């Protein structure tokens, strides 16, 4: 048996032990993990220093290097995130529906854990603790396959998690860190369809496409977030401007940042010059169609690719649309099913927008930056799904469970002639 | 572009038109389909006669030939099933949760259709109408890929469905029947991950494994139903006998029929001889372990394979277990995650049974034959899932939808410093 298969089997064997933990036991475990992480801060920072050195030697710079970096405050934040997950509602055992059928049989739908979740991720070492915590709170075992650039940091964080698991009488395999980071090993992991119930890739589009391409286990993911702000003819323009600036500039490198601005032609002349001035002041460059460029001289010409791009940067694509329907058609054609916003005071336009689009999150008069598990009330988030199955949009602990049927009778049979007594 | 891709694209283009239909429009459409099918009964029977002749020429016999056969009553039943689906609750637009966050933002979870569902199935022509109806009621477009043995029948049924679609101003592509039945065309369909949101295979284990192996789109399926009846030491034995006979003999060829009987050793001597007599009288042959054979002379020796087998026939595997835990261990090892039943008057044993097993349907003192969408109150069923994702157990119209986020604000931004006004 291959090493990855035997690791995964050990993880699967741990799953039934986690599935039956009650809420206080899971809370104590996660708080124990937070404590162990705090006590091991020095180890984690020493391990991270090795990763940072290796990354620097390879010429990694800027935002990527910063995402890898840990310091005392960041380790404390990771520990706090474990405590935050411990405070979330436990999704396991929740009865979502309860019916008594005409024959007296009682039917309940009850949430149970998925089983074994494989996380495939890059760079940020905090995912090691965050993902483990959410999986455990939902009663799952987890296989963590992080990036090679963070291996020392991930190993040190996992050691803290294992210490707490063992202190609570649970096998370390409940949180299994894959240290063999060869691509063929990842492919093998993604094909263990008798062991792994779900794979969640998080990272760049290249990683996600690789995972989707090679997986034989179910995958939930999003490739990118090309989020649109549509400013309707009936928009409150100051409100639209606030949402535009928040969506584009408050954190341009994340998937719920705005990438495209669509403006109804009836208000383009009033809105676009002011919007452009506010964006330009904040360092955002504009790429627009002809109508946009006629109103905003600083805008360069947008290509078709720009309208499908996730810039993750201070760049925005702009288009003036002739009608509401043109805005919908643009989003359907170029969108990524992640998050779309309409700014309007016209309630019927708002309803039509919501109904016409199939994106995971559709917003009326609110910032795209709220498209996040924490912001939308899920507590924490294991990822965002644009896979239209199981979960759609930000995924919290509940997305790591499944409803099953629990049926109770008093001897009812389907065919009366089956009765012997 | 290949023909299957262009068919699938036309189907996808129909999906937004279906997604916005209101409940009365969908009801009228399904009733129109039922009427068209009744009017075309003669066409459907003539087409079916061709399929039956071809099947007979190929030497198809018995149950397989019967599953293919239509007559006036069966066509009427298919039309009635369309009316029954029209009477089901519409899952689309249902608000499942509603919250107002601290910042005043309102968050709703609302059900929307999946989009495009591909059904891959064998033999029974009724699936053509049943699957189309459930997909349409949930606002989805559907691609139907039936078996070659039923092609004439499926084409005649689809023609009736298309007549109703067109009468309601909808494109026939909303229900697309694939007539090119080459395996490579099915593989191409299963890899259209930019078009098909979900594939549901229904049929023999060979077909389902083929679909799972080749799909790049999400697949929900079950391979087989190895359903267990565990008779606890605290069982009501007459009740246990009724459930055993109903589960094994009322329809042995279906996936919710019992395949394995586990009996606690404390009651084996009292229960097994009576159970065996009742089974033998009804033509069921028993395959047992040593302890079973010591009590039931007519039982042959069970192999390990017998305990994992879906017999779909009047055969049952039997084992005497030393304890409750041995019963759980047996089911975990040999089970298919479909349906398991405990017979007990001991409430704590019942609870432990439900908690220890991860099967899609777990029952206490009720027949495994209730593990069916219609029986469990879903109205109709598109399939049964043992895939631990999205849906688990019998799947009704709701399983063909997904919850998304609808967010309404009054200009809230995530970072106050983003406010221009």
From TrEMBL, chains A, B:
Where is the major localization of this protein? cytoplasm
Enzyme Commission code: 1.2.1.41
User: Which GO BP terms, alphabetically?
Assistant: L-proline biosynthetic process
User: Taking every annotated instance into account, which residue ranges of this chain make up the domain Aldehyde dehydrogenase?
Assistant: 27-307
Pathway, according to UniProt? Amino-acid biosynthesis; L-proline biosynthesis; L-glutamate 5-semialdehyde from L-glutamate: step 2/2
GO terms for molecular function, please?
A: glutamate-5-semialdehyde dehydrogenase activity; NADP binding
Q: Name one GO cellular component term.
A: cytoplasm
Record's superkingdom? Bacteria
Name the chemical reaction catalysed here. L-glutamate 5-semialdehyde + phosphate + NADP(+) = L-glutamyl 5-phosphate + NADPH + H(+)
Ordered alphabetically, the record's keywords are: Amino-acid biosynthesis, Cytoplasm, NADP, Oxidoreductase, Proline biosynthesis
Which locations, inside or outside the cell, does it occupy? Cytoplasm
Q: Which class of enzymes does this protein belong to?
A: oxidoreductase
InterPro entries for this protein:
Ald_DH/histidinol_DH, Ald_DH_C, Ald_DH_N, Aldehyde_DH_dom, G-glutamylP_reductase_CS, Glu-5-SA_DH, GPR_dom
Q: Which Gene3D superfamilies match?
A: Aldehyde Dehydrogenase, Chain A, domain 1, Aldehyde Dehydrogenase, Chain A, domain 2
**Protein role:** Catalyzes the NADPH-dependent reduction of L-glutamate 5-phosphate into L-glutamate 5-semialdehyde and phosphate. The product spontaneously undergoes cyclization to form 1-pyrroline-5-carboxylate.
Family assignment from sequence similarity: Belongs to the gamma-glutamyl phosphate reductase family.
The protein's matches in HAMAP family, at most eight in alphabetical order, are given as:
ProA
Q: What is this protein called?
A: Gamma-glutamyl phosphate reductase
Organism of derivation = Dyella japonica A8
Gene name per UniProt: proA
